[in-house]
Amino acid sequence: MKLNLCILASGRGSNLRAIIKANKAGKIKSQVKLVISNNSASGALNIAKTNKIPNYHLSLRLFNSEKQFVRKFSELLAKHKIDLIVLAGYMKMINPYIIKKYRNRIINIHPALLPKFGGKGMYGIHVHEAVINSGDTVTGVSVHYVDEKYDHGEIILQKEVKVKADDTPETLRKRVLRTEHKVYPEAIRLLETNKIKLGKDKSRK
Ligand code: GRF
């Protein structure tokens, strides 16, 4: 099944780029149909523009109420017939209404082996600092469903990455990120081929 993807990103957008590339290379059938960022300077919006993918800067700050923000968000998802919402470095909580509507149709990637090194404050370089400080010799990547709690939903796919004795948080971050670029398309492939069950589509009438 070919899924219409919406990518939510706040920063660089390298996972977005990897997903677009995987589709162009025929590794996944699903296509990025929509990119939304809360950050107008996000690299992800530029990548979307370059690839002629509809893209929006959507932030709660730009609306009078959360209700209006969520309405706009929902309208965009419906307009682009989104089947799967893919969080790629999105730094905001997803509104509970959207989580409910797209239950088991929202996924996230985390740069560690959840449930280790997840939860509040565990993002970006902090994750890799914590891994190195823990003395663990293996870390990795987790793709999981998004539910109402941070880094909590059911795990779809994990891949290990070795921690080297001379790793710094930055060298580890780079190596884990390269693995993310392989693992995220693989997880999408599992969902589009029904090897892992997608939630029931409650979004389309
Ligand atoms: C990745 O490390 C991802 O695991 C985390 O945020 C980062 C996003 O990187 N959730 P990019 O914007 O895709 O380059």
Task: Determine the N-to-C terminus distance.
Answer: 19 Å
Which bin fits the share of residues in helices? 25-40%
- Structural class comes to alpha/beta
Number of strands: 7
Compute the number of helices.
6
Give the helices and strands as they follow along the chain: EHEHEHEHEHEEH
What is the molecular shape? globular
Q: Taking Cα atoms only, what radius of gyration do you get, to the nearest Å? A: 16 Å
Q: Mind summarizing the main beta sheet?
A: 7 strands, mixed
Low-pLDDT segments, ≥5 res: none
Distinct ligands, ions and cofactors found in the model: 5-O-phosphono-beta-D-ribofuranosylamine
Mean pLDDT: 95
Structure report:
The protein is α/β, with parallel strands linked by helices and about 200 residues long. The protein is built from six helices and seven strands. It has a seven-stranded mixed β-sheet with strand order 3-2-1-4-5-6-7, with helices on one face. Strand 1, helix 1 and strand 2 form a beta-alpha-beta unit. Helix 1 crosses helix 6 and helix 5 crosses helix 6. The longest helix is centred in the C-terminal third of the chain and has 24 residues. It is globular. About 35% of the residues are buried. The mean pLDDT is about 95. The protein binds 5-O-phosphono-beta-D-ribofuranosylamine. 5-O-phosphono-beta-D-ribofuranosylamine binds next to helix 1, strand 5 and helix 6.
Properties at a glance:
single chain, 205 residues, alpha/beta, 7-stranded mixed sheet, 6 helices, binds 5-O-phosphono-beta-D-ribofuranosylamine
